[in-house]
Amino acid sequence: MELCWIDATAVDAVVAASHLFDHHVERHWVQDFLVEPAHHLCLAYQGGEPAGFVSGVELTHPDKGTEMFLYELAVDDRFRRRGIGSALVAALVDLARTRGCYGMWVLTDADNSAALATYQSSGPIQQSESVMLTWCLHGAHHTFVD
Asked: How far is Cα 11 from Cα 3, in angstroms, rounded to an integer?
């Protein structure tokens, strides 16, 4: 397995891995994401084929400093149970340390046992139950095209 951190010059690599994402990948959204220095995306390759990715976003607050938000983790069904997800999470933890983040966090559904097992294997502390609230802006939920 090979892990590759993707920068703004590698939009095509992300588009080529679009099957790993939940929704249709738009080139301009990839570019917008990658051009930001606090946005990070790492692709995992198995035998030269995109097998998974992790994305993270650094968040800085005036009274807290900078933390890493694990935005999304995905592993192709064909490559699951091979340690790819854990390796991607570990790579983001290492990057967060290197970048001087004081911590890293992720949200997941309580019934997503695969995600919980992957995240818990890297040693985080589970916080109390949380409630997530969302605002629909511009009058409606965003419609994704698959």
From this structure: 16
3-state secondary structure of 41: strand
The CATH code that applies to domain 2-120 is 3.40.630.30
Give pTM, 2 decimals.
0.88
Lowest-pLDDT choice from 13-17, 86-90, 128-132: 128-132
pLDDT at position 115, please?
83
What 3-state DSSP class applies to 105?
A: strand
| 8, 2 Cβ separation under 8 angstroms | no
| Residue 126 neighbours by CB distance under 10 Å | 8
Q: Where are the domains of the chain?
A: 2-120
Residues belonging to the chain: 146
